[in-house]
Amino acid sequence: MIALRSILFNTAFYLNLIVRMIVLSPVYFVMPRKKAFSIPKNWALSCHWLMKTIVGTTFTIEGLENIPKGGYILAPKHQSFWDTFALLPWLDDPVYILKRELLWIPLFGWYAKKQRMIPVNRGARGKVMAAVMARTADEMRNGRQLIIYPEGTRRAPGAHPEYKYGIARLYRDLQVPVVPVAMHPGLFWPRRKFLRFPGHFKVRILPPIEPGLDPDAFFERLMHVLEAASDELLVETARENPHVPLPPTAKHRLKELEKQATETGERR
């Protein structure tokens, strides 16, 4: 049944994306840029409905009150394709730094260009990266929300964290709050797999880290608060969804957390 639902969902997901892009393109490209963002946001909401209806997966967002007004950096955990689009409906005017090759994709690239997404050549150095930073700073001055995944790439739930220092440089140079986000969508929409699993999970938006800290101090604080919240949610999510198969990384991390809790209890 899970395999059948997964096939149905994946088919509906990509058909929904392609049909909406084609049908709504004439409207999208004549609308003002920010108003046109309602089309991708509504697509994200429709994907949530498909997940709920076909697969039986739902989620709750906690901490929306922690989102500041104006420009800030959103720093979510990155486990799945789900978290690349899922929070769009709750953000005012988000922007991504993305691989320039993505802008060459028909329709998707045109959509991204209209929203002034920031392309980057990942092998670039020097003046090119300085230009990317200047463009990013300009978008932030216009009150946009930069979405950056602190670990750079998708990581399995419970995997040992590998944060990239680039977010600390952005924090230092842009002088805006950073909002960490903990979640485990990778348990229900695993990376590199077509299976989708039913259940319920939480997205936890943490209090912002305000600008002004030393970059090293900020980096340590971000890792500490985000990993602590991720561990807490991993325990909660696994307990509340015992039917969901856990990847080896999650099983290992849960054993570590159980051992730590036992040792802490014994010391008390």
Automatic annotation (TrEMBL):
Biased composition (Basic and acidic residues): 255-268
Record-linked PANTHER family: 1-ACYL-SN-GLYCEROL-3-PHOSPHATE ACYLTRANSFERASE
GO molecular function: acyltransferase activity
Native source organism of the sequence: Ciceribacter thiooxidans
Pathway the protein takes part in: Lipid metabolism
Chain segments carrying region Disordered: 242-268
Transmembrane segments: 12-31
Keywords: Acyltransferase, Membrane, Transferase, Transmembrane, Transmembrane helix
Record-given protein name: Lysophospholipid acyltransferase family protein
InterPro entries attached to this UniProt entry: Plipid/glycerol_acylTrfase (IPR002123)
CDD domains reported for this sequence: LPLAT_AGPAT-like
